[in-house]
Design brief:
With 377 residues, the chain is an alpha+beta fold. Helix content is 53%, strand content 14%. It has three domains: 109 residues, Acyl-CoA dehydrogenase/oxidase, N-terminal domain (Butyryl-Coa Dehydrogenase, subunit A, domain 1), CATH 1.10.540.10; 107 residues, Beta Barrel (Butyryl-CoA Dehydrogenase, subunit A, domain 2); 145 residues, Butyryl-CoA Dehydrogenase, subunit A, domain 3 (Up-down Bundle). The strands form three sheets. It has a four-stranded mixed beta sheet. A four-stranded antiparallel beta sheet has the order 2-3-7-6, with helices on one face. Helix 7 packs parallel to helix 9 and helix 9 crosses helix 11. The longest helix has 38 residues. The protein binds flavin-adenine dinucleotide. The site of flavin-adenine dinucleotide has 23 residues, from strand 1, strand 3, helix 10 and helix 11.
Length: 377
């Protein structure tokens, strides 16, 4: 077994870290207070190759794979988990178009997504429930060779920043009754609705996508009619979940750094509190959470990069990393004492960000259902 990253992955990690520290870090405070995603970052992320990590070269990407993508999202999230979720959801759309799109769709959308003309997203969740995919109410009705879309998606990452998102709606009943479409933002009857104000990941854009008699061509179908459930599940389980896991890995790294920094800098009884055994235990726990979560997540991505079955490992990584981030940020917050509650210390932001990662990409309960099914079979 070789636990070292291959060279291309090391380069991606270094590039993403430099980009995050240079281009994202100065924006973090404004994103936090304003709750807005800095649009100028989109092109810049395209310029350094972060947007096309899963896309082959002939469509404008680098196709460096899922391990490279995870360390890139992790490095970005170490500085800003809000930018991390925007990036990982963007990757979901690139993967969905690659896996299910026609040649025409790949040629039309992938280069634009890689350049950062706009961000990508995959819109599944509706007010009727995110966990219950078949409970969605939005429809696409076949009409004179076109489809007419009606409905409302909610909690969609990059809702106001995307250009031609992937939407999953009902075209029939049951598990063969969902279909995926790519819909250009400029299409009549398609608009972004309300923007959510979140407790964490505040700089990430989250909102509604609304369809009112929105007419699209049959060529906008992604895959065949009735394949929407399969496309949604594969994209969520093999791209969205490891993406949210990577955001959590970044939070874990940042929590460890903030905890260590504070413990070394805060003096009590004439010595840094890092000399107190209770504080050392907290540090050891945070360190262990971060390293064990990385092992589970990196292995799952390695399986995916080998073309092997990975859905259960991916969801395990998502649950392990997001729950670990919640526990670790709470411990790092404790190390800070009263300072942990003060807005000028980043740890309170990381703690709030970690909490939001638990439901985004599918909840822990749903993750456990998937894992238990695999174990019981
Ligand atoms: C920041 C953020 C970004 C997001 N981005 C996107 C996006 O880009 N695209 C998108 O489509 N969605 C997105 N979502 C939505 C996200 O996927 C859903 O919030 C998530 O799937 C949970 O759905 P829900 O919120 O409707 O909760 P519900 O499904 O209503 O669940 C409520 C509770 O019931 C539990 N529960 C549900 N079913 C079961 C069961 N069978 N057994 C046990 N417990 C159960 C859940 O675990 C949860 O605790 C985002 C969410 C957030 C917070």
């Amino acid at each position: 077994m070789d636990f070292d990253f291959p060279n291309p992955v090391k380069i991606v990690k270094r590039t993403a870290r430099e980009f995050a520290e240079g281009a994202i870090a100065p924006l973090v405070e404004k994103m936090e207070t304003g709750g807005e995603f800095p649009k100028a970052l989109i092109r810049k992320m395209g310029d350094v190759g972060l947007l096309g990590l899963l896309v082959p070269r002939n469509y404008g990407g680098s196709a460096l794979g899922y391990l490279a993508r995870t360390v890139a999202v992790q490095e970005v999230s170490r500085v800003s988990p809000a930018v991390g979720i925007a990036l990982q959801v963007h990757h979901m759309q690139t993967a969905a178009v690659l896996d299910w799109g026609s040649k025409t769709q790949k040629e039309k959308y992938l280069p634009a997504l890689c350049r950062g003309e706009y961000l990508g997203t995959v819109a599944v969740t509706e007010p009727t429930g995110g966990s219950d995919l078949l409970g969605m109410a939005s429809t696409a009705k076949a009409e004179k060779g076109d489809y007419v879309l009606n409905g409302r998606k909610c909690f969609i990452t990059n809702a106001h920043l995307c250009g031609a998102p992937v939407i999953v709606v009902k075209t029939g009943e049951g598990s063969r009754g969902l279909s995926a479409f790519i819909v250009d933002k400029a299409t009549r009857g398609f608009s972004a609705g309300r923007e959510e104000h979140k407790m964490g990941l505040r700089g990430a854009n989250t909102g509604e996508l609304i369809f009112k008699n929105c007419r699209v061509r049959a060529g906008n179908l992604l895959g065949d009619e009735g394949e929407g459930m399969k496309a949604a599940l594969k994209t969520i389980s093999e791209v969205g979940r490891p993406g949210m896991a990577a955001v959590a890995l970044g939070i874990l790294e940042a929590a460890l750094e903030e905890g260590v920094k504070f413990a070394k800098g805060r003096t009590l009884y004439g010595k840094p509190i890092s000399n107190l055994q209770a504080i050392q235990w907290h540090i050891a726990d945070i360190y262990t959470e971060a390293e064990t979560a990385k092992l589970v997540c990196y292995r799952a991505c390695w399986l995916k990069d080998q073309g092997r079955e990975c859905a259960t490992d991916m969801v395990m990584g998502k649950v392990v990393a997001t729950e670990a981030a919640c526990r670790a940020t709470r411990k790092a917050l404790d190390i800070h004492g009263g300072c942990g509650s003060m807005l000028e210390f980043p740890i309170q932001r990381l703690w709030r960000d970690a909490m939001v990662c638990v439901s985004a990409g599918g909840t822990t309960e749903i993750g456990k259902l998937v894992m238990s099914r695999a174990a019981l079979s």
